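Format notes (please read before filing issues)

Several people have asked whether sequences and structure tokens are stored in separate files. They are not. Every record keeps both together, in the order shown below: the sequence lines, then the token lines. Line labels are part of the format and must not be stripped during preprocessing.
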Amino acid sequence: MLQSYEAIIENGQVKWLTDEPKISKARVIVTILSDTTPQVSRRTPPTAIAGKGKTLGDLVSPIVEEQDWECLK
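Then the structure lines:
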């Protein structure tokens, strides 16, 4: 059975990024990535809609009563 686990090797030591496998011995395939820094992709809205949003009510409580919500019926 083939299972995948993520780890980083630093100075010859394996540091698991996910749950550590419960094994005492295994054959592994190592893939070397040139940059090990995680890339965080931040979504940005299109510039055509920038500044066009409006807050219509309280950010915490709903703008309409719960009885008027179609999804609750």
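For reference, the curators noted about this record: The CA atoms of residues 10 and 21 lie 18 Å apart. The chain has a mean pLDDT of 80.
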